[in-house]
Design brief:
The relative contact order is 0.11. It contains seven helices and 17 strands. The strands form six sheets. Strands 1, 2, 3 and 4 form a four-stranded antiparallel beta sheet that branches.
């Protein structure tokens, strides 16, 4: 295996030195002539001929003809789709840095015909989720006098197709359960969570803070206080009514963020754990579970946020 990450002239000089181990030639000592199609006796095995000339004052004199094979670009890139993601290139020369980096080459502008590329080819994409522009076909053509290569390389100017695990192998269950109503679905009752979430109950904080978990709102005091912070009129009735607090029970009353043990700590450290669903813009919340049989127009838990 021979790497190709040298300039064309150095690749050819390597051929000469490998066959002539004592030569140890450098480009400062010899001048490589113009490559031409080999029409000699070894044309079947070597496609190129060249005359090598000793440079003046190099310690060498004269010339020597050599034959060797240049690589055909089409064969070099056989079965390879060469995507070159350069934004708005103007000529083939603008593609060389990316091409060399991706494929271990060291082509220069002296090796190629710098063909023009249409304007606005492979423009930048400003939306990161937008699809990449369709790749544009382009042909890199080697000059007839390129030392190491001949023919062409077919290119596609554009981004490579995305790679990764197939999404169809990650999402194998496609029939999803869907979202759940906070307080279960009802054809007649509203969601207590939705109704109460935006209420600022800070004006009745002193009253709320005094309510213990499992306290029942079985007197008019709770309704009286709640009516101070909502426009609707809540009542305390032992019969089914709209906006009825009778039979409601406190299920939580405390901080919107609790300190819980840190599972990664070895020294007993803690981390913040927000109460599920709570608005942490407030420091406290009281959850009040409405009576399913006595409150006719709402079901579930009232979220009464307050700052204490």
């Amino acid at each position: 295996m021979k790497p190709l990450n040298k300039t064309s002239d150095l690749l050819v000089l390597d051929f000469i030195n490998e066959k002539n181990v004592d030569a140890d030639l450098e480009l400062s000592k010899v001048l490589l002539g113009t490559p031409a199609v080999n029409d000699g006796d070894d044309a079947d095995t070597r496609n190129t001929k060249m005359v090598v000339t000793a440079r003046k004052n190099s310690g060498l004199v004269g010339t020597q003809g050599v034959t060797y094979s240049r690589l055909a670009g089409e064969a070099l890139f056989r079965n390879v789709t060469a995507y070159i993601d350069v934004k708005t290139p103007k000529t083939t020369a603008d593609l060389l840095d990316k091409l060399n980096a991706q494929y271990g080459l060291k082509l220069t502008v002296d090796d190629i015909v710098p063909a023009n590329i249409p304007d606005n080819t492979n423009p930048p994409v400003t939306d990161p989720d937008a699809p990449d522009p369709a790749p544009v076909d382009h042909t890199l053509t080697f000059k007839d006098d390129c030392y190491a290569f001949l023919g062409t390389i077919p290119l596609k100017i554009g981004a490579k197709p995305q790679v990764g695990e197939r999404l169809s192998l990650v999402i194998t269950q496609t029939q999803l359960d869907g979202l759940q109503y906070p307080d279960d679905k009802s054809d007649t009752k509203g969601q207590a969570y939705i109704y109460s979430y935006g209420v600022d109950a800070t004006p009745i904080a002193a009253f709320l803070k005094a309510q213990a978990v499992a306290t029942l709102a079985d007197d008019s005091a709770f309704a009286t206080e709640l009516n101070k912070v909502v426009p609707e009129l809540w009542v305390d009735k032992d019969t089914a009514e709209d906006y009825n607090l009778h039979g409601a029970s406190v299920t939580y009353n405390g901080p919107t963020v609790n300190q819980v043990p840190d599972p990664s700590s070895t020294t007993g450290g803690t981390i913040d754990e927000p109460v599920e669903g709570a608005n942490t813009d407030f420091n406290s919340i009281l959850k009040l579970e409405l009576s399913d049989s006595l409150c006719s127009n709402f079901q579930g838990e009232l979220f009464l946020h307050y700052n204490a």
